[in-house]
Amino acid sequence: MSTENTITPLGGDVYEIDTRMAGHSGITAGYLILSDRPCLVEPGTSGSAPTVQRALTELGVGPADLATVVVTHIHLDHAGGVGDIARMYPQAEIVVHEKGARHLASPERLMRSARMVYGDLLDTLFGEMKPTDAARIRAVEETGVIDLGGGRQLRSHYSPGHAKHHVGLLDSLTGDLYVGDAAGVYIPETADVRPATPPPDFDLDTALASLDKFRALGAQRLLFAHYGPVDAVAETLERSAEELRIWVDAVRDAHGQGMDVDHAVAAVQERIAGRYKAYGPDADPELARKYEVLNGVASNVAGIMHSLDRLA
Question: Please, what is the average pLDDT of the chain?
Fold first, then answer.
């Protein structure tokens, strides 16, 4: 496969890499910071590892050159390829939040849980996460610092709510904030923002507090794993919070009426009808299908229902 359409320069020695998750373009992005100590943020799925490797080779990063691989969290669309990339780049340190570190070293439990959710679709969407040598994993806590060389740093900021092992990452040189899934899913074709609230970790108050933390960081640009760069930082973070509240209110109403997940999904779809251009009557149906794979209503509703049950 050619790398011609997988690499987009973003300035500041940052390159967006389309990881071509499950063969889709524009669904999951990794980012290479081509600093003195090259750093890969979000390697993507196991199935994406060869695509990412080709892109790094095209950008001049060989097997001994990659200094660091950082994941915002350990969900398979972000971190499923860590073990593969670690083997391809044996000098790279792997950085992850402490709550996710053991799953990178021993991914069996994570894979069992994922297979229960996705069934046979798991292999098509993600592939199998390979274990990473525990000696190469550095766990960060509330904050952490990744040395990019030349005085440049990537600082991690613990940002749970979407997942209990989630961090945001701020580049000291560019002001880029890698938001993972904490600010939801950005659809560049339509500038829509949708929440990402899968089970089992979603919690509204925690997620909103993480968005407040992101606002306080004073980022110049948001870099979404799904998908791409966004310059309108304050407006986008506010929209992210607004969408979370709307979805949770809709599910809470359904939950209060004793609805099961299927009926709650229908109620939410009715409540959000017309909010997103990507899902409107004039939208490209393939675009809607692509994002439903990544960010399905049923998964989001199930995560919110789970959080309401936990509160109750």
Answer: 93
> 237-290, pLDDT tens digit by residue?
999 999 999 999 999 999 999 999 899 999 999 998 889 888 877 778 888 787
Q: Which helix (H) or strand (E) holds 80?
A: none
Percentage of the chain lying above the pLDDT 90 cut: 78
DSSP H or E segment with residue 299: helix 297-311
pLDDT digits (tens, 9 = 90+) for 222-242: 999 999 999 999 999 999 999
**Are 60 and 66 contacting, i.e. CB atoms less than 8 angstroms apart?**
no
Candidates 298, 191, 183, 168; CA nearest to 241 is 183
Q: For residue 240, give both structure tokens.
A: 């992210």
DSSP-derived letter for residue 257 is T
Cα four-point dihedral sign 123, 22, 4, 1: positive
Cα dihedral value 249, 295, 97, 170, nearest 10: -90
Buried b (16+ CB within 10 A) or exposed e, 76-90: bbbbbbbbbbbebbe
| Residues forming a β-bridge with 137 | 94
DSSP string of 227-283, one letter each residue: TEEES-HHHHHHHHHHHHHHHHHHHHHHHHTT--HHHHHHHHHHHHTTS-GGGSTTS
Q: Report d(CA 52, CA 55) in Å as an integer.
A: 5
**pLDDT reported for residue 4:** 54
Is 80 exceeded by the pLDDT of residue 2? Answer: no
- Torsion angles phi and psi, residue 123, rounded to 5: -65, -40
Structure tokens at 182: 């904490």
pTM of full prediction above 0.70: yes
Alpha-carbon span 180 to 78, nearest angstrom: 8
CB 32 within 8 A of CB 223: no
One-letter amino acid for residue 264 of the chain:
A
Most confident of 19-23, 69-73, 196-200, 307-311: 69-73
What's the CATH architecture for 7-232? Answer: 4-Layer Sandwich (3.60)
Are 300 and 244 contacting, i.e. CB atoms less than 8 angstroms apart? Answer: no
